[in-house]
Amino acid sequence: MPEHETIAAISTPPGEGGIGIVRLSGPDALSIASRIFSPGGRQKEKEKNLCRVKSHRMLYGFITDPETGEQVDEVLVAVMRAPGTYTREDMVEINCHGGAHPLARTMELVLREGARLALPGEFTKRAFLGGRIDLTQAEAVLSLIQAKSDAAGKAALAQLSGGLGGRIRQETARLARICAHLEASIDFPEEEIEPDEMAAITAGIKNISGNLKSLSGSYEEGKLLRDGIKTAILGKPNVGKSSLLNALLSQERAIVTDIPGTTRDVIAEYMNLGGHALKIMDTAGIREAADRPEAEGIKKSLAAMDEADLVLCVLDGSAEFDEEDMRVISRIKERCKRAILVINKKDLFMNKKPEGLFAEDWPEICVSAKTGAGLEELKVSITEIFRQKNQAGAETGVLITSLRHKTALDKARLALDRALGTIGEGLPAEIVSLDLSEALRELGSITGEVGTDDILAIIFSEFCIGK
Ligand SMILES: Nc1nc2c(ncn2[C@@H]2O[C@H](COP(=O)(O)OP(=O)(O)OP(=O)(O)O)[C@@H](O)[C@H]2O)c(=O)[nH]1
Ligand SMILES: [Mg+2]
Fold first, then answer.
1. Which of 138, 156, 256, 275 could bond 144 through an S-S bridge, CB–CB 3.0 to 4.6 Å?
2. Which residues pair with 312 in a beta bridge?
3. Do 7-118 and 137-147+154-212+404-461 come out as alike in CATH topology?
4. Domain 225-391 has what CATH class?
């Protein structure tokens, strides 16, 4: 791993902004920056050589091309010396004016003076390889950058503070002790394991397996937090699905007419609900299609239903419920986990709640997309469904948001269960120990203590350059 190289990148997003940052990390970061930096202000001479400047200071000056003496930009330069930095290496951050030209010119000079362009996520990868953070924390950096809601941000921040890594290491340490005990009995047969010790080992493994199971069980909730709750609005034509979308978004996003079959395509928008991101999808009304475009639209409605975490099943409460409504309801019942029955056009049927409860275990809410009545109740009901789901996170204190972590946890748990089976059959400690070692390897792969370059390459390639 060529960690002796100094890397550089523009760390701020493209486009125009107040400032843009060129970031350097590595053994030559300070000397490279010194060659292109001319201090301004009173401290000029003292600050010319950044290698002599105190760590964690910000200096005012100019970026100057050393070959021509031409000034490129007026800047603030942050000098941060190892090991107290993001990467644990010497770092310099050059705060330029936030435009494409000054940033590109500064970057050009930095590369000419000996830095190499950083790969995606390479700064964070160095933080990991330097031992400042574990792999779960490195992944949390990416989740934090991509967080779409308050709740997702909080979960990422908890992971970044080492919550998940800490829990994994806790279980790993307990398992390692059990493993060591077994290994001792293999290496020194005179240290045979007594039956009561074996019972304690079995109980220990069971307990760890249970803890891994509840961690893995928090994945569904974690995924919802990370990606947002996918909510599909479904129903037969003309019941007011598009009107409901518009009312929830407080925006005329979808076309509304009194002609059944108006919506032909899925319309998706994000909204924030009680700190959760909601990806809300309006769909084409489901019925025996009148023409080909409508039939294609209905196919997409059904695909949205399969993809959804939550379905809002809309009925028109001002009319009699009919066979078409019933068909939609039974389709949703067949294929979906969670749904709310939204009885729309409340302004037309006033307080007379329609008869016939179709879906016993779904909440039923009467709304008017036209007047906004009942919308608050609907929002509360949606939040309530996901508040109940939050119990898993409350139990473990830690949420799994990554499929990679869940897969490793499940594999570790399977290995532990195999070990329990082996103990039950009275097979030798060597065989039990093999399964326990596999579980340890899986747990180690989560925090990056056991890793392969392949895993690292996949994880860090998802980052942006400059992070
Ligand atoms: N009075 C009343 N009319 C409503 C309400 N919601 C929708 N409408 C009317 O119902 C008709 C159909 O509304 P849309 O929102 O287009 O219905 P849709 O379910 O999206 O219909 P398709 O896209 O054809 O499937 C329009 O004339 C709306 O103005 C409501 O709460 N009260
Ligand atoms: Mg519509």
1. 156
2. 233, 340
3. no
4. alpha beta
Residue having the nearest C-alpha atom to atom 8 of ligand 1:
240
Q: How far is CA 411 from CA 112, 209, 217, 248, 399, in A?
A: 48, 11, 13, 42, 18
Radius of gyration of the chain (CA): 29
List ligand 1's pocket residues with C-beta within 6 A. 235, 237-243, 256-258, 260-263, 284-285, 344-345, 347-348, 368-370
* Cα–Cα distance measured from residue 103 to residue 174, given in angstroms and rounded to the nearest whole number: 50
Fold adopted by 7-118: Gyrase A; domain 2 (3.30.1360)
Please identify which residue in the block is written with the tokens 């109740």: 377
SS3 66: coil
Q: In terms of Cα–Cα distance, which of 220, 400, 217 is closest to 310?
A: 220
Q: Where are the domains of the chain?
A: 7-118, 137-147+154-212+404-461, 225-391
Residue 1 — very low, low, confident or very high, per pLDDT cuts 50/70/90? very low
CA 98 to CA 231: how far, in whole Å?
38
Strand pairing report for 17-25 and 7-10: antiparallel
141: CA distance to ligand 1 center in Å? 43
Closest ligand 1 atom number to CA of residue 367: 31
Homologous superfamily of the 137-147+154-212+404-461 domain (CATH): tRNA modification GTPase MnmE domain 2 (1.20.120.430)
Contact 318, 350 (CB under 8 A): no
225-260 residue pLDDT tens: 888 889 999 999 999 999 999 999 999 999 999 999
Q: What is the DSSP string of 235-302?
A: -STTSSHHHHHHHHHTS--S---SSTT---S-EEEEEEETTEEEEEEE-PPPSS-SSHHHHHHHHHHH
